[in-house]
Amino acid sequence: MRQVAKRGNMMLIKRDVYLNKLIERQNNGMVKVITGIRRCGKSFLLFKLYKEYLLNSGVGADHIIEIALDGIDADELREPKACYRYIKEKILDGEKNYVLLDEVQFMDRFEEVLNSLLRIENVDVYVTGSNSKFLSKDIITEFRGRGDEIHIYPLTFAEFYAAFGGEYDDAWDAYLNYGGLPALIDMNNAKQKMDYLKSIFDNVYMKDVIERNKIKNKDEINTLVNILASAIGSPTNPTKISNTFETERHSSYTHKTISSHIDFLEEAYLISKANRYDIKGRKYIAANLKYYFTDVGLRNARLNFRQQEPTHLMENVVYNELLARGYSVDVGVVEVNQKNSEGKSVRKQLEVDFVTNMGNQRYYIQVAYDLSTEEKQQQEYNSFRNIPDSFKKIVLVNGSSKPWRNDEGYVIMGMKYFLLNSDSLDF
């Protein structure tokens, strides 16, 4: 792939959606908790973009208290009482002080520190964290509704494209290959990007998961990650994976352990789970969930940049994009009666890639690399034809085509239009 000149670098990447969420929550009496996978830009959002906003709004630099708890220079401040004393000493007067704490999970008993800070009238608190367990089990429980989460993702394609500085096709190829971690924007060649992604997967993400959860058998969870990476967009479950281990590896990697390890990967924001939803029955189906990677570049790096099936990668990108836009996303199932070769009626499940909801609005979405054949069109449309409601039905295809409606009222939309227009689903 040819190299292109960039319009900017990481320092110029705008994350306006997340910045505006912080601004909207300023001085609301709650701890603003910024969550997301490590290296996705949480620190940049807080210490660069939001701090810059505060300074431009007239807040004095001496009223912004910054502590990066994952750095060696903050080693002593990981002790909760020392950290609290340090912050208290930095509060100069009765004007509003802004406390910015990065990677707060590195501090023991951080909940007590944050609760104590909330009791100081002229303090507004912001923290980042890279593990969902600390949010779900500590922030919500300890703060009793006084924690306000802003979850951020790696760069969406629109954010990536704005910083890329080249043609759409080149940007799309780069994004499908290497994903949207912000540091990649400054890297000049494919080897540098691949080495970076493989290194941080092993030495940051997997190391965090293994050490945090005290996992002894590293080989098992590493193999599990490879299986999930190979199976993006395909239904699976812990029992099925356990059977594979038992048959092919003669390993007693039980489905309970596998389920726990998958939870650990989710808590680290490496993967995300899509539940299966029975559209006609209006209920969730417990079996055979789908898993997607938070960043396709990390997924590709895990498989040494092999198995790069365009349709599955597109599906993963669409899933992440929908989450970043704030939708809840499930995998749809439509049960139909069809006649088999013997003329007997059989029950069959048709799949809708995504059932996307926000409030009372819903969209049904299929992702297809192309619709060039009648067979492919029938495959994508059949599920839609059996959905008994009138919510919008959309097929996303590779390429730059603008949205149009076919004779059945389904919207056909190119990936370029979908990804670069934040309101594209409202066409």
TrEMBL record:
Pfam families (alphabetical): AAA_14, DUF4143
InterPro entries cross-referenced by the UniProt entry: AAA_14, DUF4143, P-loop_NTPase
Gene3D superfamilies: P-loop containing nucleotide triphosphate hydrolases
Domain of life assignment: Bacteria
Every AAA domain range: 31-160
Residue span, DUF4143 domain: 207-369
Protein name: Archaeal ATPase family protein
